[in-house]
């Protein structure tokens, strides 16, 4: 039984997706013309596909698991479910128009909207009871306004530089916050999936946590443990110094320098930070 996994073949998600899989111990293609790759040792096969199509393959059950964008999953209407946020490929989905012309979503009424995400836009308009026409374009939607094909666009915004260059500005609230996600079929308990899920989760944890070691006097331990409680609780070992203990605890990478300052303040010494390379929670 081989777990069949869909991976973005190009575009904004492809490099980071393969990187996370490689870190999780899987083989990845070395040539981006390869369309599929069997990793027999790990019992998985990877299929390199357009991220927009990945939700459909997984939803239909042709493939077991996939990596794609949350916005693309929702846009496709596929029945696959999001099982894990992967922390890369972040973007926001926005309406945008000529700078200064639009301020509220009510102004969308009766307008022509160009987008590559017709599913997301139509669902949003329907939920708000806004009547507007939606045109599907494959890309470069920013140009459609200048060419007179649309009044407004709805598109992915990452840094905002593409919009600025086109003289456009977002208006209204964010329609959708997106990032790369792992998707699977909601109903099934696919063999091998749980191992795959845990391996990828291990990479994310290893990226976002570090290991902290320190020595402290027994009498100050409670205060220190309050600052850094760890996942289950700190590991406390005897130290070759009367009244002192050695403590080991996993802490979030973000804020770890500040935490070292705070631990020092309450009496911790020889505080060490080390990277975690892999992990199973
Ligand atoms: N700067 C960005 N441009 C486009 N998509 C981005 C960006 N940052 C993150 N994403 C996310 O990547 C996914 C789109 O990937 P996809 O490969 O379809 O688009 P792309 O990089 O624009 O590729 P292409 O336009 O060449 O088909 C979406 O989930 C989107 O939210
Ligand atoms: O906010 P930014 O950082 O500028 O990124 C957002 C832009 O990037 C994407 O376009 P892409 O380069 O994929 O071209 P496309 O329109 O042909 O898909 C997206 O469609 C926006 O145009
Ligand atoms: Mg694009």
UniProtKB/TrEMBL annotation:
Subcellular location: Cytoplasm
Recorded catalytic activity of this chain's protein: 1-(5-phospho-beta-D-ribosyl)-ATP + diphosphate = 5-phospho-alpha-D-ribose 1-diphosphate + ATP
Enzyme Commission identifier(s): 2.4.2.17
Entry function: Catalyzes the condensation of ATP and 5-phosphoribose 1-diphosphate to form N'-(5'-phosphoribosyl)-ATP (PR-ATP). Has a crucial role in the pathway because the rate of histidine biosynthesis seems to be controlled primarily by regulation of HisG enzymatic activity.
Single GO BP term: L-histidine biosynthetic process
Protein name, per record: ATP phosphoribosyltransferase
Database matches in Pfam families: HisG, HisG_C
GO molecular function: ATP binding; ATP phosphoribosyltransferase activity; magnesium ion binding
Keywords, in A-Z order: Amino-acid biosynthesis, ATP-binding, Cytoplasm, Glycosyltransferase, Histidine biosynthesis, Magnesium, Metal-binding, Nucleotide-binding, Transferase
NCBIfam families: hisG, HisG_C-term
Ranges for domain Histidine biosynthesis HisG C-terminal: 206-277
Family: Belongs to the ATP phosphoribosyltransferase family. Long subfamily.
Record bears the keyword Magnesium: yes
Regulation of protein activity: Feedback inhibited by histidine.
Record pathway: Amino-acid biosynthesis; L-histidine biosynthesis; L-histidine from 5-phospho-alpha-D-ribose 1-diphosphate: step 1/9
ATP phosphoribosyltransferase catalytic domain sequence ranges: 50-188
PANTHER family found in the cross-reference section: ATP PHOSPHORIBOSYLTRANSFERASE (PTHR21403:SF8), ATP PHOSPHORIBOSYLTRANSFERASE ATP-PRTASE (PTHR21403)
GO annotations of cellular component type: cytoplasm
Necessary cofactors: Mg(2+)
């Amino acid at each position: 039984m081989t777990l069949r996994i869909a991976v973005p073949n190009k575009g904004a998600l492809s490099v980071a997706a393969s990187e996370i899989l490689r870190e999780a111990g899987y083989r990845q293609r070395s040539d981006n013309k390869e369309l599929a790759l069997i990793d027999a040792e790990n019992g998985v096969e990877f299929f390199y596909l357009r991220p927009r199509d990945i939700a459909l393959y997984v939803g239909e059950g042709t493939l077991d698991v996939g990596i794609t964008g949350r916005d693309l999953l929702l846009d496709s209407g596929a029945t696959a479910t999001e099982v894990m946020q992967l922390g890369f490929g972040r973007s926001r989905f926005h309406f945008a128009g000529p700078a200064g012309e639009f301020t509220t979503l009510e102004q969308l009424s009766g307008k022509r909207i160009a987008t590559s995400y017709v599913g997301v836009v139509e669902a949003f308009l329907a939920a708000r009871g806004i009547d507007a026409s939606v045109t599907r374009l494959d890309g470069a939607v920013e140009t459609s306004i200048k060419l007179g094909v649309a009044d407004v666009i709805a598109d992915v915004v990452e840094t905002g530089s593409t919009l600025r260059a086109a003289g456009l500005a977002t208006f209204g609230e964010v329609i959708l916050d997106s990032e790369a996600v792992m998707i699977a079929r909601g109903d099934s308990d696919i063999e091998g999936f749980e191992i795959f899920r845990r391996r990828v989760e291990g990479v994310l944890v290893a990226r976002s946590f570090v290991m902290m070691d320190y020595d402290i006097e027994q009498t100050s331990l409670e205060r220190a443990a309050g600052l850094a409680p760890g996942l289950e609780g700190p590991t406390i070992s005897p130290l070759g110094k009367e009244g002192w203990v050695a403590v080991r605890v996993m802490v979030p990478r973000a804020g770890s320098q500040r935490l070292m300052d705070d631990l020092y303040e309450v009496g911790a010494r020889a505080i060490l930070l080390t990277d975690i390379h892999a992990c199973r929670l």
